Each structure stands twice: as structure tokens, then as C-alpha cells.
Amino acid sequence: MRKNLALLLPVVFIGLLTSCKKNDTSTSNNNSNTNNNNNTSNPTYYFKAKLNGTSWEADAVFVSASIDNGRLHLVGGKTSSTAYSGQISIDKYKGVGTYKGAKEMNIGFTLPNIMDGFQTRADDSVSIVKILSDDGKTITGTFSGVLFDQNTSKNDSMIVTEGSFSTPMI
Questions:
Q1: Which residues, 6 or more positions from 157, have their beta carbon under 8 angstroms from its beta carbon?
Q2: DSSP letter string over 20-89?
Q3: What's the Cα-to-Cα distance from 153 to each of 156, 157, 163, rounded to whole Å?
Q4: Over the chain, what is the mean pLDDT?
Q5: Least packed by Cβ within 10 Å: which of 18, 36, 83, 128?
């Protein structure tokens, strides 16, 4: 019995040593900044702007970015069926930099389930998107512009100011 106990005791001791952690590095998956003892954090994702002076922000779970055939797509959506969703696309995406006017990019805000919304015009030269950082995992930047209703001839417009985003690459 003593011989078995003498062999079992070191195994239990080693098991206890390897199961203890110096720092708790567990994180939650709620897209909020969470600092723990080893100074790592989860990024906060967002896509927001003022639309005609009214604050609008996408739900964090509906924020993403992707690159397809050299075109960057940024999307921010809402769970509400009556709220706008925002989209930005940049043709010939080359990373950090400034993209200006319809020849380089497009900004749009559309209502769900309706083919109606506002976007940059083909002759736009004032709308701007600035990519501030792109590490391959997260893209951050700012945007602004004057968008027009594409389904009417009334020249209805939407002024987009203070636009900013931090989106995960998918």
C-alpha cells in the first residue's frame, strides 16, 4: 500500500501544479473591452455616425468587414426592422489611407426589407473614408459625406457626419 501511495503522490502533485494558473486569462465573448491581469483585451467593434444630425449606431454583433476581389466591404446593421443599416465599399482597396469620392468608394444607408436608401452619387467628390488602421483582423476608420435617395427624383439627401468604425475581418 505504501509503495502505491509513494508512486501516486508525485503524480497527484504534478497534476495540481499543472492545473493552477498564475493569471486568470478567461475572457467573455461580448465584444466589450475586458482587461485582465495579463493586459490583454477583447476589441470593441462599432459602426456609427450622425445621420442628418441624429446619432445612429449598428448593433455590435452585426458589424463586419471583408475583402472580395480587391474590394473592401464594411457593414453595420441593426436588429430593428425600421432602422437603417450602413455599408461602405472601397474599390481597389490598398490598406491604410484616404479614399474620396465615388470613383474610389461608396457609402450607403438602407432600410431593411425595402429597396430604399441613401448612397453617394456617381459624381460625388465630397464623401470621404479614411482607413486609420488595418492589422488583418480589425479595420478602423472614419467617414462622412452627403448621400442621396436613389429611388426618387426629389433630390432628398442625408448628411453623414462623425462616422467611425472598428470592424472585425471575417
A1: 118, 146, 147, 148, 149
A2: --SS-----SSSS----TT---PPPPEEEEEETTEEEE--GGGEEEEEETTEEEEEE--SSTTS-EEEEE
A3: 8, 11, 26
A4: 78
A5: 18
Q: What is the helix (H) or strand (E) element at residue 161, kind and residue range?
A: strand 157-168
Residues with Cβ within 8 Å of residue 116, at least 6 apart in sequence: 110, 149, 150, 151
H helix or E strand, kind and range, residue 165: strand 157-168
Q: Which residues pair with 67 in a beta bridge?
A: 72
Strand partners for 139: 134, 167
Q: Which of 107, 136, 129 is nearest to 43 (CA)?
A: 136
- Residue 3, SS3 per DSSP: helix
DSSP code string of 117-147: EEE--TT--S-EEEEEEE-SSEEEEEEEEEE
- CA gap 82, 84 in Å, rounded: 7
